[in-house]
Amino acid sequence: MPAMNLSPATGMPARVLSGMRPTGQLHLGNYHGALRNWVALQDRFEGYFFVADWHALTTDYDNTSLLQQHLQQMVIDWLAAGLDPERSTIFLQSQVPAHAELHLLLSMITPLGWLERVPTYKDQQAQLKEKDLATYGFLGYPLLQSADILIYRPAFVPVGEDQVVHVEMTREVARRFNHMYGRDEKFGAKVKAAVGWLEPAARETYRELRRRFQEGGDHAALAEARALVLASSRLTAEQSELLLANLEGEHHRLLPAPEVLLTPTPRVPGLDGRKMSKSYGNTIGLTEEPASIARKIKGMTTDPARARRTDPGTPEKCPVWDLHKLYSSAETCAWVRAGCTTAGIGCLECKQPVIDRIAADATAMRERAQPYIDNPGRVREILAAGAVRANATAAETMQVVRRSMNLVPADGTP
Ligand code: SF4
Predict the structure, then answer these.
(1) Same-domain status, 30 and 118
(2) How far, in Å, from the CA of 330 to the mean position of ligand 1?
(3) Closest Cα to atom 5, ligand 1: which residue?
(4) Would you give the DSSP letter of residue 163?
(5) Which of 193, 301, 331, 407 could pair covalently with 273 via S-S, beta carbons 3.0-4.6 A apart?
């Protein structure tokens, strides 16, 4: 098993957090776009994975009839793909009400312009023209995402390129919160003392690297300074946090700003060559029957240049090639390339190894899904156990948040 990534602040395995809207049974695009990576992350991180059921309401608020069915099916697919409730916290967003409280509190300090500028706000309104998305909930959904993230204080948020902007906004919100509520009169003195605890040779280096980042925006210097702090064995977790916060000009990390963990999102073509998506009706299900998989892939679009069996083709112009890149060995890929470009093989022949591989994976996952399909109560138990853990973690953060906003007495009494 790979070594766990440890959090510098706690010395415990670093936490990652990610969520998915409940869309029902998953397809190969969902799997390669996120789920496969979640399963792999469990080996190296403490994983928190949640069903974003409130997020489903931001666009589908007018029809919630399938919500329960969709979330149940999706969690079964997570489990079938290898997400392990013994190692990861798997839960339902709506079973942790603190997400809503933090969302509300963060909404008080978030400038409207930050939300209006999120690219997906206008894009989605344009794409989903048939829906009225001029709602308060839809405008605020990136901030709900920020609350979803910050409440668990994860070190990393695994996202694809298109979601980086949301994590960036989350970082901005955390910084604003920390700046507004984390002022500490003794901060300067505490930083000075903490620097004094660094190894003698590292003290001046820390100051110099911080200056280079603060004055010149030198991100390499910031990374070097962070590494220097994290490598020091003489600092307590609190001192380490303090020096990390000081590097970026923050006073207090009440809400630590998480880092992006960029997830490779390979292109997963749908049956018609466009991106695989439920809305295009071009998907292959993660646990689909082999006969259905074979029928679908046999009918899949290929390079139009291969109108006849004797016409050579170009794999790069064929969506089946994208599937080979995901599923086939180097040897098979070489066989495809040679056969396609010389018309040595036909398209049906070329598709067979992909059909076999996808069908084998789907069969294995279907077998793992079956006990949960037979016993839906088991899924609810897993979500309930996850909610207990998630609520406990969220409660710790909310204590800090409430106290720093003076919503409770400073001594913490209710
Ligand atoms: S031989 Fe394979 S890669 Fe080439 S066009 Fe046909 S299906 Fe696509």
Answers:
(1) yes
(2) 16
(3) 303
(4) G
(5) 301
Distant-in-sequence, close-in-space partners of 306: CB < 8 Å, separation ≥ 6: 312, 313, 318, 340, 343, 347
Question: Is the CB of 74 inside a 6 Å radius of any atom of ligand 1?
Answer: no
| pTM for the structure as a whole | 0.84
> Are residue 173 and residue 30 in the same domain, yes or no?
yes
Give, for ligand 1, the residue of 272, 296, 302, 317 to mutate: max count of ligand atoms closer than 8 Å to Cβ. 302
Classify burial at 198, counting beta carbons within 10 Å of its beta carbon; exposed 0-12, middle 13-18, buried 19 or more.
Answer: buried
Contact at 8 Å (CB) between 50 and 91?
yes
CA dist 325 and 338 (Å) reads 15
* Predicted local confidence at residue 7, as pLDDT: 57
How does pLDDT run across 191-231, given as a tens digit for each residue?
999 999 999 999 999 999 999 988 888 889 988 998 999 88
What is the spatial distance between Cα 13 and Cα 73, in angstroms, rounded to a whole number?
Answer: 30
- The total of structural domains in the chain comes to 3
**At 349, which CATH number?**
1.10.240.10
Range(s) of the domain holding residue 231: 187-247
How does pLDDT run across 77-90, given as a tens digit for each residue?
A: 999 999 999 999 99
Find the 356 Cα to ligand 1 centroid distance in Å.
Answer: 16
Residue 361, sorted as left (phi over 0), alpha (psi -120 to 50) or beta, turns out to be alpha
Domain for residue 410, yes or no? no
User: Under a CB-based contact definition with an 8 Å cutoff, are residues 308 and 52 in contact?
Assistant: no
Helix 98-107 to helix 141-150 angle, to the nearest 10 degrees? Answer: 120
Long-range residue pairs from 226-235, CB within 8 A, at least 24 positions apart, any chain: 228/198, 228/202, 229/8, 229/198, 230/8, 232/197, 232/198, 232/199, 232/202, 234/197, 234/198, 234/199, 235/194, 235/197, 235/198
For helices 164-181 and 119-127, what crossing angle results, to 10°?
140
Q: Same domain, yes or no, for 355 and 235? A: no
Whether residues 107 and 196 share a domain: the answer is: no
329 in any annotated domain: yes
| Residue ranges in the chain whose pLDDT is less than 70 | 1-4, 6-12, 250-251, 410-414
Which among 318, 263, 229, 274 is positioned nearest to 38, based on CA atoms? 263
- Is 90 contained in some domain? yes
- Same-domain status, 236 and 369: no
- Rounded Cα distance, 151 and 305, in Å: 53
Residue 9 lies in a domain: no
Residue 219 has a pLDDT of 87
